[in-house]
Amino acid sequence: MYSSNNDLYRAKAASWHDAIQVWTGPESPAVEEIPEICRKEMVAWDVHATKVAETVGELLAEGLGLESGKFKELTFMDQKVMAGVCYPYCPQPDLTVGLTSHSDAVVLTVLLPNQVGGLQVKHGEDWVDVKPVVGGLIVNIGDLLQIISNGKYQSVQHRVLANSSKEVRISVVTFFNLNKWKGSGYYGPLPELLSPDEPAIYRDFTKQEFLENLYSKGFDSKSLINKVKI
Ligand SMILES: O=C(O)CCC(=O)C(=O)O
Ligand SMILES: [Fe+2]
Prior knowledge:
The chain is an alpha+beta fold.
């Protein structure tokens, strides 16, 4: 499945980027469904990005006092979408953005940018530039992980400025999401993290609710989190 600008028809304003998205999990797509021009690279990068996500997932699980393999067991990295995002030169960058401010709705995101800057993260009230580092990857905590961890991990609000450089900005982004929802199709804070001293701060929600929230509007920040907050 390909999309050109994920929220073009749902957002209030068009943003200055184009994208191709390919679902790479839970099942790998038939290779001939991936555009030939980037087939080899996408297949190879999926392997590496997944390894990174799984390793970071192990560390994050340990950080919560869980078994390192817990996230893998719960299929948190199995639903995968890879996006190649292109931010062409924008002649009037002060009139629009490259990508609207949002938090990623998923569990975890692994992002490989080229050397053209533009990504910013919200820190307190300020927007802070994320300077590209050669060979460096960016990993975002997504909204689902904030909910599942009962707020121990916080999803990050970010945006991309419209590209004022003559060089195209490219980022390859893989979104990792859970595949197996609990028996009746719901999710919420992990029971292992809850106690009388630390009760759930989010309610459980269904996959349907997650998807409806995701596709009913343009990119936004923490809307599911705000909806399920107790
Ligand atoms: O291109 C980037 O650096 C950010 C992309 C992004 O945040 C997204 O696709 O969700
Ligand atoms: Fe994002």
